[in-house]
Design goal:
Blueprint (H helix, E strand, L loop, with lengths): L2 H4 L3 H25 L4 H17 L8 E2 L5 H11 L4 H17 L11 H23 L8 H6 L1 H9 L2 H19 L12 H15 L12 H4 L5 H5 L5 H25 L9 H17 L6 E2 L1 H9 L6 H16 L9 H15 L2 H10 L1 H16 L2 H20 L2 E6 L6 E9 L4 H9 L7 E11 L1 H13 L9 E3 L2
Helix pairs in contact: 2-3, 2-10, 2-15, 2-16, 2-17, 3-14, 3-16, 4-13, 5-13, 5-14, 6-17, 6-19, 6-20, 9-10, 9-17, 13-14, 13-15, 18-19, 19-20, 21-22
C-alpha cells in the first residue's frame, strides 16, 4: 500500500500547510512583539498550536496559535506580574480549560451572546489599533486603553517633529496599504499571503534605503524559552492573579469555540466536537505555559486560510507547526531584519478587522438591544480592561434576557356596564410589576373587576403576592370584590 492510498489527501494538506505557515509566521511574531514579549515566544505558541493541539481531536481544520484577540490581556498581565509569571498564568489557564472540557462545558460557550463576543473583539481591536499607532511611530504607548486613545493627538505632534518617527510611521502606513490593496492583485500574486508580502516589502525597503527604524530583537529560540520557576509559582499567592487566569481561560475558550463554529460553516467535513476541542486548547495552553510562551487560541484568519487552501485533514495544521519549528530553529536571524513598524501595521490591520462595523449597523436596524450590548462591551474594555469589560457585557446580556423574558401584556376592557375586565398574558415578574400595578390601581373603585390570569405562562412569587394584595384592597365598601381567574 503506497502513501497515496494510505493518505489520499496528503498532497492537498501539504500545500495548505505551506499557505497557513506563511500566514501564521508574521502574525506569530507581530502578536508577540505587541504583547511585550520576545518575538520567538509567538513562534513557540504557533508551534505548540500546530503540533500539540493539531494532533488532538476536536476540530479537524481550525488552526491554533497566538491571537491578536489576547494581545491586550497578555500585555496587561506581563506589565502587572512580569514576564516570568506569564508561563504560570498560561499553565493554570490551560489546566482550567482541561477541567472545563472534562466537565463537558464546551457546548455552553455557544450560549454566550454573540453581541458580547463581537463587542469583546471590537474593544480589543480599538485598543490594539491605538497602541500599535504608537509602535508604528516608534513611541512608547500609555498603559491603559483610554490613555492610549486620549494621548494620540500629542503622539501625532511628537511624531511630526521627528524624522525617525515619520520614517517609522511611513513604514507602518505602507504595510497597512499593502495589506488593504493585496486583495486587488492578480490571483497568482495573491498566492503569497498579504501579511507576509507586506512584511517582506517593508523589510526590503528598510534595508535598501537604510531607514532609521527599529528592528525585531532576536534572542534565539532556546534563549527565549524560559519555563516558570519557583518565584513565578510564588505569584499564585497574589489573589489578583486568579482573575487574570480565569480571564485567559474563558476568553481563549470562547474565541476558540466561536472560531470553530465559523470554520464549520466553511467546509462540509466532520463537525467540531466542542468538549474535545476545549480539551485540545487546554492541552496546548498547558504546554505553552510550561515553556513560558504566549497563550494560544484558535484563530479564524489562519483557519479560514487552511480551508480555502484545500486542507482536508488535521495533517495540514500539524505540518504548519513543523514548518514554524524549522524556521525558528534554522533561520532565527531573519527575524532581526523585520522592522517593528511593519509588525505594528499588521496588528493595526488585524485590529481593524476585529471591529464588526457591518454587524453593528445590521443589529441596530433589527435588534437595538443587542447593538447596545456590543457597543457598551467594546467601550467598557477600552475604558476599564478586557476582563471587566466582558463581565459588563455579560451582565447587560443577562439583564436584557431577563427583561425580555418578563414581557407581559395587560389589556383592560370596559364596556361601560358590568364588571371591568383585565387580561394579563405573558410572563409576570417583579421587573414589570410597577407598570402592572399602576394600570390596575387606576381602575375605577366603584365598579366590580375581573382579573383574568389564564393567559400567563409564568407568575413569580412577588408578582402573585402583589396581585393578591391589590385585589384585597381594591374597591369601595359596597363594591363586589375582585374576581381572579387563575390558569
Amino acid at each position: 500500500m503506497n502513501a497515496v492510498t494510505r493518505f489520499p489527501h496528503l498532497r492537498r494538506d501539504f500545500a495548505a500547510s505551506l499557505v497557513v505557515f506563511l500566514v501564521a509566521l508574521p502574525l506569530c511574531v507581530g502578536v508577540a512583539v505587541a504583547s511585550g514579549v520576545p518575538a520567538e515566544l509567538g513562534l513557540v505558541t504557533g508551534i505548540v498550536g500546530g503540533i500539540v493541539a493539531g494532533l488532538m481531536p476536536g476540530s479537524s481544520l481550525q488552526v491554533s496559535g497566538p491571537a491578536a484577540g489576547l494581545t491586550v490581556l497578555v500585555f496587561e498581565a506581563v506589565r502587572q506580574f512580569g514576564l516570568a509569571s506569564l508561563g504560570v498564568i498560561v499553565l493554570a489557564a490551560g489546566l482550567l480549560q482541561l477541567l472545563m472540557g472534562a466537565l463537558k462545558l464546551g457546548r455552553w460557550f455557544r450560549a454566550i451572546s454573540v453581541s458580547v463576543v463581537a463587542g469583546m473583539l471590537a474593544g480589543i481591536g480599538l485598543v490594539i489599533i491605538a497602541g500599535q499607532l504608537y509602535a508604528a511611530a516608534g513611541l512608547k504607548a500609555p498603559a491603559s486603553g483610554i490613555d492610549k486613545i486620549a494621548g494620540l493627538p500629542d503622539a501625532i505632534v511628537r511624531a511630526v517633529g521627528s524624522t525617525e518617527a515619520m520614517a517609522s510611521l511611513g513604514v507602518g502606513a505602507a504595510t497597512v496599504a499593502v495589506m488593504v490593496l493585496w486583495k486587488r492583485m492578480p490571483k497568482q500574486v495573491r498566492a503569497v499571503p498579504g501579511a507576509l508580502a507586506a512584511v517582506l516589502l517593508a523589510t526590503l525597503a528598510s534595508l535598501a534605503f537604510a531607514l532609521p527604524v527599529a528592528k525585531v530583537e532576536v534572542q534565539g529560540l532556546l534563549g527565549a524559552i524560559q519555563p516558570p520557576g519557583a518565584d513565578a509559582f510564588g505569584q499564585l499567592a497574589q489573589p489578583a492573579i486568579f482573575g487574570t487566569i480565569v480571564a485567559f481561560a474563558l476568553i481563549a475558550s470562547a474565541e476558540s469555540l466561536f472560531s470553530a463554529a465559523a470554520v464549520d460553516r466553511l467546509h462540509d467535513g466532520p463537525r467540531t466536537e466542542y468538549d474535545k476541542e476545549l480539551m485540545a486548547q487546554g492541552a496546548g495552553n498547558t504546554v505553552c505555559g510550561l515553556l513560558g510562551a504566549l497563550p494560544m487560541t484558535a484563530v479564524i484568519v489562519r483557519s479560514s486560510a487552511n480551508v480555502q487552501a484545500g486542507a482536508k485533514t488535521k495533517a495540514s495544521r500539524v505540518l504548519h507547526g513543523v514548518w514554524l519549528l524549522l524556521f525558528a530553529a534554522l533561520l532565527p536571524s531573519v527575524l532581526g531584519l523585520i522592522p517593528l513598524p511593519a509588525l505594528a501595521g499588521i496588528l493595526v490591520y488585524a485590529g481593524w478587522k476585529l471591529i464588526p462595523f457591518r454587524q453593528v449597523v445590521l443589529l441596530w436596524k433589527s435588534y437595538r438591544g443587542e447593538a447596545l450590548i456590543l457597543v457598551v462591551t467594546a467601550l467598557a474594555i477600552v475604558a476599564v480592561n478586557m476582563f471587566e469589560g466582558v463581565l459588563i457585557g455579560l451582565a447587560l446580556s443577562v439583564v436584557k434576557t431577563a427583561w425580555q423574558a418578563s414581557h407581559v401584556k395587560l389589556e383592560v376592557v370596559d364596556k361601560g356596564a358590568g364588571p371591568v375586565q383585565a387580561y394579563l398574558s405573558g410572563n409576570a415578574t417583579f421587573l414589570r410589576l410597577p407598570k402592572i400595578l399602576d394600570t390596575l390601581e387606576s381602575l375605577p373603585q366603584n365598579r366590580p373587576v375581573e382579573l383574568d390570569l389564564s393567559g400567563l405562562h409564568h407568575v413569580d412569587h412577588a408578582c402573585r403576592t402583589a396581585l393578591e394584595n391589590w385585589a384585597e384592597r381594591h374597591g369601595a365598601a359596597d363594591t363586589e370584590r375582585v374576581r381572579i381567574k387563575t390558569p
